[in-house]
Write a structure and sequence with these properties.
- By secondary structure, the chain is mostly helical.
- The chain is about 75% helix and about 0% strand.
- The chain has 4 helices and 2 strands.
- The protein has a two-stranded antiparallel ribbon.
- A hairpin with a 5-residue loop joins strand 1 and strand 2.
- The longest helix is centred in the C-terminal third of the chain and has 47 residues.
- The protein starts with a helix and ends in a 13-residue tail after the last strand.
């Protein structure tokens, strides 16, 4: 039964979205606490979950089309259209999936925006710190005149 298979893949998608939300919250904590050391690892973990979601999304499209044929609606119909055409208890189950997916997607969207803002702030702070180093490194030439810029090495705080 294709509705059963569609529901199974929707559960899988919900689990993956919950995992993505968890990883984004982890990334937010890392960014908010200035733990730059873990940003790359956290970003790779988010990308890994996104790859799994893309794969699952393809499977959902196939199962949705099978379910659409089963309930007599056109292929490519939305989850709500499938729910409206499906017999009980599938109609309520598909609506519940839709509500849960919409809710978690909204949370992911909000958290993603927050993380982008935190990253932008971190980049801006790093750039300002680097400009501060450049401007504060005035030295003197061998003739005693003031010289801007030098080829000397700088020690940077990794937390930047």
């Amino acid at each position: 039964m294709s509705l059963d298979e569609l529901s199974t893949i929707l559960w899988r998608e919900r689990e993956l979205l919950e995992t993505l939300l968890y990883r984004l919250e982890t990334e937010e904590l890392i960014l908010a606490n200035g733990r730059a050391r873990w940003v790359g690892r956290s970003s790779r973990e988010v990308e890994a979950v996104l790859d799994q979601i893309r794969t699952t999304d393809l499977g959902r499209a196939v199962e949705s089309d099978d379910a659409a044929r089963e309930v007599g609606v056109p292929e490519g119909s939305s989850l709500l259209e499938l729910a409206n055409a499906a017999p009980a208890p599938w109609d309520e189950m598909l609506r519940a999936h839709h509500t849960a997916l919409a809710d978690i997607t909204s949370q992911i969207s909000t958290l993603s925006k927050l993380n982008r803002d935190l990253l932008a702030s971190s980049i801006q702070a790093t750039q300002e710190a680097l400009l501060g180093i450049k401007d504060s490194m005035n030295t003197y030439t061998s003739q005693g005149s003031r010289s801007k810029g030098t080829d000397a090495a700088y020690l940077l705080d990794e937390a930047l």
